[in-house]
Design a protein that fits this description.
With 293 residues, the protein is of the alpha/beta class. It is 37% helix and 12% strand. Zinc ion (ZN) binds next to loops.
Length: 293
Protein backbone atom coordinates (compact mmCIF):
# COMPACT_ATOMS: atom_id res chain seq x y z
CA UNK A 1 0.00 0.00 0.00
CA UNK A 2 1.20 3.47 -0.86
CA UNK A 3 1.77 5.73 2.15
CA UNK A 4 -0.69 8.60 2.56
CA UNK A 5 0.96 11.64 4.08
CA UNK A 6 -0.88 14.46 5.84
CA UNK A 7 1.11 17.59 6.61
CA UNK A 8 -0.54 19.82 9.21
CA UNK A 9 0.86 23.25 10.01
CA UNK A 10 -0.24 24.72 13.34
CA UNK A 11 -0.59 28.46 12.74
CA UNK A 12 0.21 30.08 16.07
CA UNK A 13 2.50 32.56 17.84
CA UNK A 14 6.28 32.14 17.73
CA UNK A 15 7.55 29.11 19.70
CA UNK A 16 4.00 28.03 20.56
CA UNK A 17 2.51 29.36 23.77
CA UNK A 18 5.53 31.25 24.99
CA UNK A 19 5.41 34.54 23.05
CA UNK A 20 2.76 36.94 21.72
CA UNK A 21 4.52 37.41 18.34
CA UNK A 22 3.45 36.30 14.85
CA UNK A 23 6.78 36.91 13.08
CA UNK A 24 7.11 33.26 12.09
CA UNK A 25 3.54 32.98 10.90
CA UNK A 26 3.87 36.04 8.66
CA UNK A 27 7.41 35.39 7.38
CA UNK A 28 7.69 31.60 7.58
CA UNK A 29 4.41 30.67 5.85
CA UNK A 30 5.47 31.89 2.36
CA UNK A 31 8.52 29.56 2.57
CA UNK A 32 6.29 26.57 3.43
CA UNK A 33 3.97 27.44 0.55
CA UNK A 34 6.88 27.61 -1.93
CA UNK A 35 8.13 24.15 -0.92
CA UNK A 36 4.61 22.67 -1.18
CA UNK A 37 4.08 24.36 -4.55
CA UNK A 38 7.41 23.08 -5.86
CA UNK A 39 6.28 19.52 -5.08
CA UNK A 40 2.65 20.18 -6.11
CA UNK A 41 1.22 18.84 -2.86
CA UNK A 42 -1.59 19.98 -0.56
CA UNK A 43 -1.61 20.32 3.22
CA UNK A 44 -3.81 21.55 6.07
CA UNK A 45 -3.07 24.80 7.95
CA UNK A 46 -4.74 24.95 11.37
CA UNK A 47 -5.12 28.61 12.37
CA UNK A 48 -5.53 29.83 15.91
CA UNK A 49 -8.54 32.21 15.82
CA UNK A 50 -6.39 35.04 17.12
CA UNK A 51 -3.78 34.37 14.40
CA UNK A 52 -6.44 34.58 11.67
CA UNK A 53 -7.63 37.90 13.09
CA UNK A 54 -4.06 39.17 13.35
CA UNK A 55 -2.94 38.09 9.86
CA UNK A 56 -5.99 37.60 7.59
CA UNK A 57 -3.67 38.02 4.59
CA UNK A 58 -1.87 34.79 5.50
CA UNK A 59 -5.16 32.86 5.80
CA UNK A 60 -6.13 34.00 2.30
CA UNK A 61 -2.65 33.28 0.95
CA UNK A 62 -2.89 29.68 2.19
CA UNK A 63 -6.40 29.29 0.77
CA UNK A 64 -5.45 30.76 -2.61
CA UNK A 65 -2.55 28.29 -2.82
CA UNK A 66 -5.14 25.49 -2.70
CA UNK A 67 -4.57 24.25 0.84
CA UNK A 68 -7.12 23.46 3.51
CA UNK A 69 -7.63 25.98 6.32
CA UNK A 70 -8.51 24.46 9.70
CA UNK A 71 -8.68 25.63 13.31
CA UNK A 72 -6.21 25.37 16.22
CA UNK A 73 -8.30 26.87 19.12
CA UNK A 74 -8.94 30.49 20.03
CA UNK A 75 -5.69 31.54 21.77
CA UNK A 76 -3.69 28.29 21.67
CA UNK A 77 -5.26 27.34 24.97
CA UNK A 78 -5.30 23.71 26.09
CA UNK A 79 -8.68 22.09 25.48
CA UNK A 80 -7.76 18.50 26.18
CA UNK A 81 -6.53 16.29 28.99
CA UNK A 82 -3.23 17.28 30.52
CA UNK A 83 -0.69 14.67 29.40
CA UNK A 84 2.20 16.11 31.40
CA UNK A 85 2.50 19.25 33.55
CA UNK A 86 3.41 22.61 31.93
CA UNK A 87 3.17 25.64 34.22
CA UNK A 88 0.54 28.19 33.24
CA UNK A 89 -1.03 25.88 30.67
CA UNK A 90 -3.77 24.12 32.59
CA UNK A 91 -6.59 22.88 30.35
CA UNK A 92 -9.85 24.83 30.19
CA UNK A 93 -12.85 23.15 31.80
CA UNK A 94 -14.51 20.43 29.68
CA UNK A 95 -17.76 22.44 29.59
CA UNK A 96 -15.88 25.41 28.08
CA UNK A 97 -14.68 23.44 25.03
CA UNK A 98 -17.77 23.87 22.86
CA UNK A 99 -18.03 27.65 23.11
CA UNK A 100 -14.31 28.24 22.68
CA UNK A 101 -14.13 26.13 19.53
CA UNK A 102 -17.31 27.79 18.24
CA UNK A 103 -15.82 31.28 18.66
CA UNK A 104 -12.41 30.24 17.26
CA UNK A 105 -13.88 28.54 14.18
CA UNK A 106 -16.11 31.55 13.58
CA UNK A 107 -13.12 33.87 13.66
CA UNK A 108 -11.24 31.82 11.06
CA UNK A 109 -14.38 31.33 8.95
CA UNK A 110 -15.05 35.07 8.83
CA UNK A 111 -11.60 35.72 7.41
CA UNK A 112 -11.70 32.77 5.03
CA UNK A 113 -15.32 33.10 3.89
CA UNK A 114 -15.76 29.31 3.99
CA UNK A 115 -16.75 26.70 6.54
CA UNK A 116 -13.95 25.20 8.68
CA UNK A 117 -14.15 21.41 9.11
CA UNK A 118 -10.73 20.28 10.40
CA UNK A 119 -9.15 20.83 13.79
CA UNK A 120 -6.00 20.17 15.75
CA UNK A 121 -5.51 20.62 19.50
CA UNK A 122 -2.45 22.49 20.80
CA UNK A 123 0.22 20.07 22.07
CA UNK A 124 -1.97 17.23 20.69
CA UNK A 125 -3.81 17.25 24.01
CA UNK A 126 -7.30 16.11 23.08
CA UNK A 127 -10.17 14.92 25.21
CA UNK A 128 -13.56 13.28 24.96
CA UNK A 129 -15.29 16.60 25.71
CA UNK A 130 -13.28 18.31 22.96
CA UNK A 131 -14.06 15.71 20.31
CA UNK A 132 -17.76 15.71 21.25
CA UNK A 133 -17.79 19.49 20.88
CA UNK A 134 -16.10 19.22 17.47
CA UNK A 135 -18.66 16.66 16.29
CA UNK A 136 -21.58 18.83 17.47
CA UNK A 137 -20.10 21.88 15.73
CA UNK A 138 -19.91 20.03 12.40
CA UNK A 139 -16.18 19.33 12.22
CA UNK A 140 -15.39 16.25 10.14
CA UNK A 141 -11.69 15.74 10.97
CA UNK A 142 -9.52 16.12 14.05
CA UNK A 143 -5.76 15.57 13.76
CA UNK A 144 -4.99 15.58 17.49
CA UNK A 145 -4.45 11.96 18.57
CA UNK A 146 -0.85 11.62 19.82
CA UNK A 147 0.18 8.09 18.86
CA UNK A 148 3.33 8.32 21.01
CA UNK A 149 1.18 8.74 24.14
CA UNK A 150 -1.94 6.60 23.68
CA UNK A 151 -0.16 4.01 21.50
CA UNK A 152 -3.30 2.19 20.31
CA UNK A 153 -4.83 3.75 17.20
CA UNK A 154 -2.48 3.28 14.24
CA UNK A 155 -4.85 4.38 11.48
CA UNK A 156 -7.51 7.10 11.21
CA UNK A 157 -10.68 6.08 13.08
CA UNK A 158 -14.11 7.23 14.09
CA UNK A 159 -14.04 7.77 17.87
CA UNK A 160 -16.54 6.89 20.56
CA UNK A 161 -18.66 9.59 22.26
CA UNK A 162 -17.66 8.04 25.58
CA UNK A 163 -13.89 7.86 24.96
CA UNK A 164 -12.22 9.74 22.13
CA UNK A 165 -9.20 7.41 22.15
CA UNK A 166 -11.37 4.36 21.33
CA UNK A 167 -13.19 3.43 18.16
CA UNK A 168 -16.88 4.21 18.04
CA UNK A 169 -19.60 5.58 15.82
CA UNK A 170 -18.92 9.30 15.62
CA UNK A 171 -18.93 10.94 12.18
CA UNK A 172 -15.72 12.88 12.80
CA UNK A 173 -12.48 11.26 11.65
CA UNK A 174 -9.69 11.17 14.23
CA UNK A 175 -6.23 11.20 12.63
CA UNK A 176 -3.29 9.84 14.67
CA UNK A 177 -0.05 11.83 14.53
CA UNK A 178 3.03 9.91 13.46
CA UNK A 179 5.31 8.30 16.04
CA UNK A 180 7.82 5.49 15.74
CA UNK A 181 6.18 2.73 17.76
CA UNK A 182 8.87 0.17 16.90
CA UNK A 183 11.48 1.74 19.18
CA UNK A 184 11.70 1.55 22.96
CA UNK A 185 10.94 4.80 24.71
CA UNK A 186 13.23 6.22 27.38
CA UNK A 187 10.81 9.02 28.24
CA UNK A 188 8.12 8.55 30.89
CA UNK A 189 5.52 9.93 28.45
CA UNK A 190 6.90 8.31 25.28
CA UNK A 191 7.77 11.67 23.73
CA UNK A 192 11.02 10.38 22.21
CA UNK A 193 8.94 8.30 19.77
CA UNK A 194 7.17 11.39 18.45
CA UNK A 195 8.15 12.94 15.11
CA UNK A 196 8.51 16.53 16.28
CA UNK A 197 10.87 18.33 15.88
CA UNK A 198 13.15 15.71 14.28
CA UNK A 199 13.02 16.95 10.68
CA UNK A 200 14.47 20.25 11.94
CA UNK A 201 16.81 19.27 14.79
CA UNK A 202 18.22 16.06 13.30
CA UNK A 203 17.21 16.42 9.64
CA UNK A 204 14.94 14.76 7.10
CA UNK A 205 17.17 11.68 6.70
CA UNK A 206 17.03 11.00 10.47
CA UNK A 207 13.23 11.31 10.48
CA UNK A 208 13.02 9.11 7.40
CA UNK A 209 14.65 6.22 9.30
CA UNK A 210 11.73 6.34 11.75
CA UNK A 211 9.27 6.58 8.87
CA UNK A 212 10.81 3.53 7.18
CA UNK A 213 10.54 1.59 10.48
CA UNK A 214 6.84 2.41 10.61
CA UNK A 215 6.22 1.66 6.91
CA UNK A 216 7.60 -1.84 7.56
CA UNK A 217 5.48 -2.09 10.72
CA UNK A 218 2.29 -1.14 8.83
CA UNK A 219 3.10 -3.65 6.13
CA UNK A 220 3.62 -6.43 8.68
CA UNK A 221 0.30 -5.59 10.30
CA UNK A 222 -1.39 -5.20 6.89
CA UNK A 223 -2.65 -1.73 7.84
CA UNK A 224 -2.89 1.29 5.52
CA UNK A 225 0.09 3.56 6.27
CA UNK A 226 -1.31 7.02 6.98
CA UNK A 227 1.43 9.32 8.24
CA UNK A 228 0.31 12.61 9.77
CA UNK A 229 2.88 15.22 10.76
CA UNK A 230 2.66 18.48 12.68
CA UNK A 231 4.89 21.49 12.08
CA UNK A 232 4.68 25.24 12.68
CA UNK A 233 5.29 28.33 10.52
CA UNK A 234 7.70 29.79 13.10
CA UNK A 235 10.04 26.86 12.43
CA UNK A 236 10.53 28.21 8.91
CA UNK A 237 11.69 31.65 10.03
CA UNK A 238 14.79 32.20 12.12
CA UNK A 239 13.81 32.40 15.80
CA UNK A 240 15.77 34.47 18.35
CA UNK A 241 18.35 32.41 20.24
CA UNK A 242 18.35 33.16 23.95
CA UNK A 243 15.90 35.33 25.85
CA UNK A 244 12.76 36.56 24.12
CA UNK A 245 11.38 39.67 25.84
CA UNK A 246 7.65 40.37 25.66
CA UNK A 247 7.14 43.54 27.69
CA UNK A 248 6.64 42.17 31.18
CA UNK A 249 9.43 39.63 31.23
CA UNK A 250 11.29 37.18 29.06
CA UNK A 251 11.32 33.49 28.17
CA UNK A 252 14.28 31.40 27.08
CA UNK A 253 13.04 28.51 24.93
CA UNK A 254 14.95 25.24 25.27
CA UNK A 255 17.58 24.85 22.57
CA UNK A 256 15.69 22.19 20.61
CA UNK A 257 12.74 24.55 20.20
CA UNK A 258 14.68 27.22 18.29
CA UNK A 259 17.50 25.14 16.74
CA UNK A 260 17.68 25.23 12.92
CA UNK A 261 14.54 27.36 12.52
CA UNK A 262 14.58 29.21 9.20
CA UNK A 263 16.67 28.18 6.18
CA UNK A 264 17.66 24.75 7.54
CA UNK A 265 14.03 23.83 8.23
CA UNK A 266 12.97 24.94 4.74
CA UNK A 267 15.69 22.78 3.18
CA UNK A 268 14.87 19.76 5.37
CA UNK A 269 11.13 19.98 4.59
CA UNK A 270 11.98 19.99 0.89
CA UNK A 271 14.24 16.96 1.42
CA UNK A 272 11.63 15.14 3.51
CA UNK A 273 8.99 15.51 0.80
CA UNK A 274 11.47 14.27 -1.84
CA UNK A 275 12.24 11.18 0.28
CA UNK A 276 8.54 10.51 0.95
CA UNK A 277 7.84 10.75 -2.77
CA UNK A 278 10.57 8.16 -3.38
CA UNK A 279 8.52 5.83 -1.12
CA UNK A 280 5.50 6.45 -3.37
CA UNK A 281 3.72 8.74 -0.89
CA UNK A 282 0.52 10.56 -1.80
CA UNK A 283 -0.21 13.80 0.01
CA UNK A 284 -3.67 14.64 1.32
CA UNK A 285 -5.34 17.33 3.38
CA UNK A 286 -7.40 16.27 6.41
CA UNK A 287 -10.58 17.02 4.49
CA UNK A 288 -9.45 14.81 1.61
CA UNK A 289 -8.70 12.02 4.07
CA UNK A 290 -12.32 12.01 5.29
CA UNK A 291 -13.37 10.85 1.81
CA UNK A 292 -11.09 7.81 2.13
CA UNK A 293 -11.81 6.65 5.72
ZN1 LIG B 1 0.11 24.56 18.49
Amino acid sequence: MKPIVVFGFDMETDVGSWTPFYEGLVKGTPHILSVLAKHKITATFFFVGDAARHAPRIVRMVDRAGHEVGCHTLYHETLGDELFPIPGLKPVLPEECYHRIEVAADMVRKVLGKKITSFRAPRLWGSTAMVNALEDLGFTADASYPLYFYEKRLVPYHPSRKDWAREGKMKILEIPNFANMTIKSNDEYGRDRDQWPLFRTKGAVALMKHIDDMLEFYERKKLPPVLCFYMHPWEFHEMPQGLIHFGEGAVRPDQFIVKNCGKVAVRELDKLITLLKQRGAEFRSCRELTAIF
